[in-house]
Specification:
Strand order of the largest sheet: 8-7-6-5-9
Helix content: 40-55%
Strand content: 15-25%
Number of helices: 15
Distance between the termini: 31 Å
Number of strands: 14
Shape: elongated
CATH architecture of one domain: Roll
Largest sheet: 5 strands, antiparallel
Oligomer: single chain
Radius of gyration: 34 Å
Length: about 500
Amino acid sequence: MMFLPLFLAAFPCLCAQDAGLDEIVCLRNGRIIVGEIVEHNLDGLVVVSAESGGRFALDWADLFPTEMERLQTTFGYKFESVVPMVQGDRILLTNGLELTGRVLRKDNRNLEFRVRGITSVIPLSRLAGPPETVLVEAATILTPEQFYSERVTSIDATDPLALFAFAQDLEQVFALEFAEQTLAQCVALAPSDTALLRRVEVMQARLAITIANRAEAEAIEHIRHLIYRESYEAAELSMAEFQSQFPSPALASDFSDLVDKIETSRAASLGKYLARSWFNRVVALLKRKALDREASMESLMSFVEGEAPLLVRMRLLDELKEMKADLTVEELDALWANRIEYRAKPHSAGYGDGTWVLGEDRARAGLGDEEEEDDGKTPQQREMEERMRRFQENQDRARRSSAAGSNEATPEDWWRQAAVTERFQFLLAYYAEFSGDYILRLASFASCNTCTGSGVLKTIEVGAEGGKEKKRKCTTCQGIGVRRKVSFQ
């Protein structure tokens, strides 16, 4: 995580560089003061009005935000620096965890992976895909010493401005002593550049505060890295320890920033984890269920609509304990509802030749994209009709299953004869449409390969009176005529 500048101690007042020049100072309440800025420090400034001669002592917060940024930058209290970024490697493990660091070595069996000062050997069998090259904040994957060693050779040691920018980067990655050394080089090269020296002076004072309170600063930096590694439970324990160890911290503002940040960061991490892991948990569960060749379709559909979503949630809650031990199902659902914000990928699945098992209404729903007319029914009436429809479908399936001596195919006939991949695809498509966990983006249709979409097979019987055409229900699609496929997110 980036190291935030510490503006916490009182600094000596600095005289305005261009004494005698009037400034137009815009205040947050809309008032404008025209006058000379005679004093300023990290807490605020003093303006003497050119009109009345009155002396106004202002906090930085009294100024209009853009005015505050302009003057703080002018006087060296705010720096236009960019968080130092470096090239890293991101790997996704088969258990859904994502790691960012540096790949040091790779052979046919293992991958050597380093995150800051910790090096791990990861079997290639645990990788869900090849490493991905990414640009990340330097402090997340490098120690201060590693960052300094990588960057120092590329800095022009004769350019004071380049050295000052490098010192800012070093401060942000917590390489404090290296930043001090670099600032000393900068001062030696630019003894007459008052604007640069003013900024160096402010930065040196800030570094001195941080170094003087190193124990606090290191504890805060440790908490930042725990948050970055998504170890939020450990971060909260460390925060409690910090408050116990430092009841009146000198760096209270920086600690307060972490308190504000941890919940928003945790919510984002939880949301991203669900966005990339929910589908995988559903797939693992349904693949096992697809192996049960003797199950009844009624029990399978009931499982997918009722029990499966609960099992997925229980698995995810267990996996997310390290991020939030007391995470509830309601919180999980709220995060999952925002999955598109966290870049959840769209997926697709098809019922294949088992489309007819859904029943004609469900199998052909959305075919032709006809607009539904308002029938004037209340939501309660529609819910009751849906329950009755499901009850009738269950009755029909039971009747077909128990039809003794009948040649009519039953859903169980299709299930037993279908390949395991077809059975899995059917369950996944059914989960996407009817579990309530996904949004249906599109339903598409393909004609049955046997009857080319007509739903019937035609034969010609030749007799004494000539040929006679006979029609019978297609044995593949059972008269439905289509194979249904859904896209969901």
